[in-house]
Each structure stands twice: as structure tokens, then as C-alpha cells.
Amino acid sequence: GDYRAAWVTFEKAIEVAEPTGQLAKLTGQLGDQRRQLRETQEDLAMTWLENLRVRGSEGETFSTLISPLDPVLNRGIASSSGSRKADLLAHAGWASFLKSRDGQRVDPDPQYAEALAIDAGNPYANAYRAHWLLWTRKAAAMPDARSLYTAALSSGRVTDMCGGSSLLR
């Protein structure tokens, strides 16, 4: 649950991994170890977003907490495909939604739509999009939201989100 400490550890591990890989530096290719560390850091970014808690009394905002996560999500989106890319896109959309809570004018729906175009059954994209519809259209969105939540559950991939207060139950 100490996402900050884990993040710092991954930053250091990625920096240290394969420091003599001159070929990787010249060709832009990553060694297997560094690639695995980056993917695991992307997983950490997604998990942290799912469980993000802002301590306003300490001057935190969603935007400041998400700031280091955005480039990692975007790096993953650019280098992945299939359901992993859809997972990352959905979480990038969730990050956009959370930043909107700080007053930023962002619309996560295009990211959700792109994720669903890649993987129509993606549990994150379906659940987060259902949430967005309910957030913006209130009760009028209930039929669409219900269908999206059903699709999320039907995937069988995720049944517990947002730190135990599941969006999917």
C-alpha cells in the first residue's frame, strides 16, 4: 500500500537496470530486464490510480499525485497493444477524470472509447466509462451504465476495483 515508496524503488531500479547496454541506448531497444521493470511500473501506476487517496490537509491534489504517473501510462500506451493497451488507456482516462476533480478541463471519454475500440470487453474501460456517464448525465445514464458494468463483470478479469469499494458490484 505504500505506492510512493514503491514508485521510488522502480525509478531507481529502471535507472540501474542494464546501465552498460550501449546497443540498447543506440537502437532504442530495451533489455528484457528494463522492459519488465517498465511494465511492472505501469502496473503500479494503474494500481495506484485505482487506490488513489488525496490528503488535502497536506496540500495534495489529484493532479500533483498523478503527475509522475502520466508519462509512465503514456509510455505504456505507446509501446503496448491489445488488452494491455486498453487497460492503460482506461487508466489514463481515469487519471483525466481525477484531474478534472481539481478543476482541470479534461474529458476522459475519448480514452475510454479508444480502449473499448481495442478491447470491447475491457473491464476498466467499461467500468470507468459507466462511472463517467453517471457522473455527467446522472440518472439518465443508468441504462447505459448498467450495460457497461455488465460488460465489465462479464470479462471475468476484475471484480474488485477502487480499493475494495468495487465499481463492479
SSE class: mainly alpha
Distance between the termini: 22 Å
Number of helices: 9
Shape category = globular
Number of strands: 0
User: Unreliable runs, pLDDT <50, ≥5 residues?
Assistant: 162-169
Helix content: 55-70%
> The biggest beta sheet, please?
none
Portion in strands: under 5%
Output the helix-strand order: HHHHHHHHH
Could you tell me the radius of gyration in angstroms?
Answer: 17 Å
Mean pLDDT, rounded to whole units?
88
Describe the structure.
Helix content is 66%, strand content 0%. It is an all-alpha fold. Helix 3 packs across helix 6. The two termini are 22 Å apart.
Describe the secondary structure blueprint for this structure.
Elements lengths: L2 H14 L5 H6 L4 H19 L11 H5 L2 H11 L2 H19 L8 H10 L4 H15 L4 H13 L15
Short description:
The chain is an all-alpha fold. Helix content is 66%, strand content 0%.
Keywords for this structure?
66% helix, mainly alpha, 169 residues
